[in-house]
Amino acid sequence: MLGFLKEPVVVTAEINVNLVALTLMGLITRLWGLCYPQAVVFDEVYYGQFVSLYMKRIFFVDDSGPPFGHMLLALGGYLGGFDGNFLWNRIGAEYTMNVPVWSLRLLPALAGALCVPLSYQILVELHCSHCAALGAALLVLLENSLITQSRFMLLESVLIFFILLAVLSYLKFYNLQRHRPFSGSWWFWLLLTGVACSCAVGVKYMGLFTYMLLLAIAGLHFWHMIGDQTLSNVSLLCHFLARGVALILIPMVMYLSFFYVHLALLYRSGPHDQIMTSAFQASLEGGLARITQGQPLEVAYGSQITLRNVLGKPMQCWLHSHTSTYPIRYENGRGSSHQQQVTCYPFKDVNNWWIVKDPGMQQLVVSNPPRPVRHGHIVQLVHGITTRYLNTHDVAAPLSPHSQEVSCYIDYNISMPAQNLWRVEIVNRESDTDVWKTILSEVRFVHVNTSAVLKASGLIGASLPQWGYRQLEVVGEKLSKGYHQSMLWNVEEHRYGKSQEQKEREVELHSPTQMDISKNLSFMAKFTELQWKILTLKNEDTEHKYSSSALDWITMDTNIAYWLHPTSGAQIHLLGNVVTWASANAAALVYTCLSLWYLIRRRRRIYDIPEDSWQLWVSAGGVCGGGWAVNYLPFFLMEKTLFLYHYLPALTFQILLIPVVLQHLGDHLCRSVLLKSMFSALIVAWFSSVYFVYCTFSPVTYGQPALSATELKDLHWKDSWNILIRKQ
Asked: Where does the sequence pass through the membrane (predicted)?
């Protein structure tokens, strides 16, 4: 029974020494002196704020992309025991003892280090020689810009890691397709492709470019499979479903899971709440939830409510009125109704309270049982403090003369009767009998007499002059002018009014709202709203000292100063290896020209290279050249502030193209022994220059040792570079 113990247990393993050595060198170049400098470096001031908010579980919105990358950085802070207490207010600020600098920078550094062996394996899977693959990995290893970007709490190295992992996984899957379809390893690499793609998109939306490229390549490969007569229809269907699940369904599920974890972690109210809807704010702990928790759900006749505009940008505001009236004449000579002003006010105030009144009854309290207001019902809105009715009429609004003025009606005993009936239209209703609900219902108020819609025009225009206390204009807008979110309102605070007397009612309006019914948003509702905010919320783009255009990147006519020591000349710059960047551009040009030449010649049935070499050339170009194109060209269409680091994913693919072109030239153009020897010598000399440039610029890559003013001037290889030299 125990006979198997008579023989020793032997485990054999194949170790790729190249991979091990490259991984170790990648770790050394990225992890060496990782804690230096002990100060905030460039965009760490930006990402650090989000890490602190994660540590404190405070909700935030970042319009730069999905939350997965931020969560990875926060994981580093969590593993290092960071409590979130640090003021991320300026670049160069010294880190305090409670900030685990090494831990916060560790994950980006590891991702950057692993990009080196990934580059090697990608070229191996593209059927390039191990020598070419080793060259690609060494070029990535010695690329100064990639080293700089991966040594700090930034996301580009993480993005590039997942992009390369996705490409490698798909290539391994595709190569297994010919020999072992539906095997365990086949499924592993296919599923890992989908996972890596979703992670890349989850770090930054730039990951979508490579994801789309891989989907296109997968579609092209499947199209070729359709023409394979050896595959049955059932087999083709299984292949199609496998790819659909792995490359579409799994990434979608994972993308949703990133937001699920994000929202589960950030359950507390914070400064970013204000751009979200009232329903979203009320779902967070603290903030609005403290006010609205337990409010009545259904709005009834007699309800006391505050109405928040749904648009919520550039600021939130509530329907508001006060005792001041519109001036008899405006500055441009136009006249007004001289009625009580109605505005949209960006702060909580007792004058934001309104009472929903039944036009057929005089009472301003909720009956027992309450009579709910439904879609299509006619109501009057009574201002809680002044008891005047919300009104609009055929008088031009103060700032929007083509729209109607909205006011609270004052009876001056002139021929201007009150027009204060409004129809409630619930825009997000499920049926025409829906009840108007607190927070959840988005409501449009349509004026019965004129069909104008209540609109906070000040959110998309100018504020009122001094006579309107710089508050936001509210108008009656004709529906024929189109639909806009500024026409939608939702009830934020709500109570059932009990006091018929005005003085008692004023006391009631000043008291907090606390009742019995709570409201919770589903995850999908919160995800949809947050996703929409991320896609549509745009911070005002301003010209940055180190911003650049996409054209500047190819020739590296720009740099970014990441950090400057307060006293010495030590500094860190995002600068690439000049030889590598120039070589990458040359390789792309050579590849393009040779491809056009081969295509023209093949069209004339002249085949200059063997078919297997042509397939390698095309597939390598599709991955490396295509990866460069899809990660670079879209920036010409973007209206946003751009920086040199946006080019790094494209640069990585372009670097991978260099050994492909060199191997092709060596194999097919250098045919004699002498030419091959000369070509090899040139490559050695060229690679020595790459290493020389890496060493030359390493002081501004790692920030140490500090250089003198003369040494810094010697690094000023281009007039457009901004190397910082202190005045003596």
From this structure: 68-88, 95-114, 154-174, 186-203, 208-226, 246-267, 578-600, 642-662, 674-694
Q: Please, where are the H alpha helices in 126-179?
A: 130-141, 144-150, 156-177
Alpha carbons 498 and 507: distance in angstroms, whole number: 11
DSSP letter for each residue of 290-340: HHHTB--SB-BTTEEEEEEES---SS--EEEEEEEE--SB-TTS-B----E
- Return the higher-pLDDT residue of 443 and 544: 443
Paired tokens of 710: 């003369």
Q: pLDDT grade, residue 272 (50/70/90)? A: confident
Q: What are phi and psi of 410, to 5 degrees?
A: -115, 130
CA dist list (Å): 176 to 13, 18, 622, 625, 684: 21, 22, 19, 23, 35
CA-nearest of 291, 217, 8, 147 to 703 is 147
Check: CB of residue 380 under 8 Å from CB of residue 390.
yes
What is d(CA 672, CA 512) in angstroms, rounded to the nearest whole number? 90
CA nearest 450: which of 427, 415, 418?
418
pLDDT digit string (tens) for 604-614? Answer: 989 988 999 99
SS3 253: helix
User: Would you identify the CATH topology of the domain 294-513?
Assistant: Trefoil (Acidic Fibroblast Growth Factor, subunit A) (2.80.10)
For residues 137 and 22, the answer to whether their CB atoms sit within 8 Å is yes
**Residue 644 in contact with residue 548, Cβ under 8 Å?**
yes
Write down the domain spans for the chain: 36-99+266-288, 156-264, 294-513, 545-727
Spatial distance between the Cα atoms of 163 and 173, rounded to a whole number of angstroms:
15
- Average pLDDT of the chain to the nearest whole number: 89
Cα separations in angstroms, 312 against 72, 459, 491, 533: 30, 8, 13, 11
- pTM for the model stands at 0.82
How many angstroms separate the CA atoms of 541 and 535, rounded?
A: 15
Report the alpha-carbon distance of residue 136 to residue 580 in Å, rounded.
Answer: 11
What gap in Å lies between CA 36 and CA 39, rounded to an integer? 8
For 388, which DSSP code?
P
